[in-house]
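Memo to structure team: turn this sequence into structure tokens by end of day. - J.P.
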Amino acid sequence: MRLRVAPCAALALAIWGCDSSNPVAPTPPPTACAFQVTAPAQNFGPDGGTTSVTVSTTAQCSWSARTDTSWISIVSGASGTGPGTVGLSVASNPALETREGVVTVAERSLRMSQQGREAAPCTYALRSGAGRFGPEGGSAVATVTTEARCSWSATTTDDWLTVDPTEGTGTASITFRAAPYTGATERKANIQVADQTWTVRQDPPSAAECTYSVTPAEIVLHWHHTGGEVRVSTRAGCSWTVSTGEAWLNVSGPTAREGDGGVQFTTGIYTVDGTRRAPIEVRWPTATAGQNVWVVHEGCRYGMDESTRTFTAAGGQAQVMVVTQPVSSSCMQGCPWTAVSDSSWIRILSGSPGVGDNPFSYEVLPNTTGVSRTGAITVMGHRVPIVQTP
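Reply from structure team:
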């Protein structure tokens, strides 16, 4: 006899198993973990301290803690499951600036900040190996000593004493300079850096008579040279003047001067056939009265065939050779020149402007006037006459 089981009974057997007295409950689906992270303290003073982070979650949820900076340490509860606590320790801050770091607990970020220490007052020291100058003036170096974070400015009490640089931060060197002095008594001025003062003194010139020398006594320039320098040597405080009476010889700078110095002069180029000469007049108030420095400027010589050129009414082209020579045989630089036509029917084709021994070419246009005409080409004062027949 076969036992038949109704469909509903089969389903019941599948659920309850063979033993209907021990039913098996179905497993519920897993739930997502949620975390809440709180910390009572996230701002610290410069001495640091400790704090704790509370993790709120369900019993089966796991989490961990980490930090991105060395001055925050996890001292307990680096990981856990379910609710828990993370212990943190914040080290002292030796710096002046506030710093920040991040602690990550259960993938939640907590930003921690810590104040810097209050800066101690800056202290300064000013030292130098020189405190006195002669009448000629000069320069020396002083050292400012202070902490790296401390800024300073440097000033002087008189214009004749200057400092460089005038400001800085931390330990540094400054250069101070004393100008030449022509007074009768000692003078002094102070360098002031923060709360430090350095006194500098300068002696007056002695009663000795001023003496002077000028070099060189003569300067010879080739045509292409455009200037030079003369040196006047004397002690600080001794006065002198410089001037020149020629328009082509120009002296730069003031007329009245004192102490050692250079005299710069300019001339411009000189391409005239010949030599020009003029003095730079240096004068001083002693028995010798002064000295002239002669500036000699050598020019260029030019030559070419200056015979008359004749063209028919049809015109044509021709060439002229220009020969140059510097006045000084030691000058190895060719002299410049330019060919210039005085008539519109005479045209310069090529070669001009030129340098040294070189030709230029020109063209005479057809003559349709019915009468003879004349013109010329000029090169540095030399003239080539040109005649064209009708």
